[in-house]
Write a structure and sequence with these properties.
about 45% helix, alpha/beta, Arc Repressor Mutant, subunit A, about 20% strand
């Protein structure tokens, strides 16, 4: 993909009041095409035409999530100089327009929060039933915190992010936090939670077997209570290892092997937990070394944390 546009092409892409408004809105939060149309007071087809121009100029990216398309800003090295120029050159009328648009995003946040409330109300009974079978979530989260340690997490990826709880807890300690989930509904819930908490993150729809991330692009990867839904946990771990940088850490949190067969029917569990030696074998096949295993007992199901790392590359000494 060629991103070497001429200077004139870049300025031409910005030379429209609506496109400048779009960039100002996306600077504050990711929005869908429909949400942008609502805030701007324009039709979706018209907004889509503006979005195509901005996408062709590589200042924004489009991500499809189910029937929705979400927009986010492009790479920081391209958009930060652009916003510095916009901030310096904006006149009072333009700044007032940006501020009015920002106020209208409150309606978007309200709608997202209401949708999240409806979903949680519908799912609460099921989730409470599962939680009753193992130690408290607060204890699991404290254990995760201990395993991760207190240093910066660098580039953090949460696979199967669900409602974004792991990013809510550990995103503030990361340079960059990315949440990935197959469910567009879950991603919308995560956006509500993380925006309310003021946590900057990038949420993307994707499959654990084909992550929308480059090789060696993550320093820490968390897979929290996801693998028991996986048809091929080994493949998911292998894909995480591909994305992990040398010296990086993979943390898997899931159930130890158990015999609660009914969970296959009531909660769509494909795997009834995991044995330590099986998990270690999958790590090894992916080129990872298991360094720590913690079992959290205290209920009918035991929660286990498996932490492994990708060996750092050796620096060759000059002859």
């Amino acid at each position: 993909m060629n991103i070497d546009l001429s200077l004139a092409d870049r300025f031409q892409a910005l030379a429209d009041p609506t496109r400048l408004r779009i960039l100002a809105l996306l600077r504050a939060m990711e929005l869908s095409v429909g949400e942008l149309a609502l805030v701007l007071g324009q039709s979706q087809p018209r907004v889509s035409r503006h979005l195509k121009i901005l996408a062709d100029a590589f200042v924004l990216e489009r991500r499809k999530e189910g029937s929705w398309v979400f927009l986010t800003l492009g790479a920081s090295e391209r958009v930060e100089p652009m916003f510095e120029l916009i901030d310096r050159w904006s006149d009072a009328e333009t700044r007032a327009l940006f501020a009015a648009d920002a106020l209208r995003t409150d309606a978007v946040r309200t709608e997202r929060a209401e949708a999240a409330g409806r979903y949680f109300a519908a799912q609460a009974e099921v989730w409470d039933q599962i939680r009753s079978l193992h130690v408290a979530e607060s204890e699991v989260e404290r254990a995760i915190d201990r395993v991760l340690g207190k240093k910066s997490l660098g580039r953090l990826v949460d696979i199967g992010t669900g409602t974004g709880r792991m990013i809510e807890l550990f995103g503030p300690r990361a340079v960059q936090a990315i949440g990935i989930d197959r469910s567009s509904e879950m991603l919308r819930l995560a956006r509500v939670k993380l925006e309310a908490a003021g946590i900057v993150s990038s949420l993307r729809q994707g499959d654990m077997y084909a992550l929308p991330l480059a090789d060696r692009s993550a320093d820490y990867i968390i897979i929290h209570q996801v693998l028991h839904y996986a048809h091929s946990p080994a493949a998911a771990i292998g894909e995480a290892a591909r994305v992990l940088s040398p010296g990086g850490t993979l943390l898997v949190i899931d159930f130890a092997a158990h015999a609660r067969e009914e969970l296959r029917l009531t909660d769509a569990h494909i795997r009834l937990g995991f044995e330590d030696d099986v998990m270690a074998g999958w790590f090894a096949s992916a080129g990872l070394e298991v360094e720590q295993v913690d079992h959290l007992e205290g209920g009918e199901l035991t929660v286990t944390l498996w932490r492994g790392s990708k060996p750092a590359e050796r620096v060759r000494k000059a002859a």
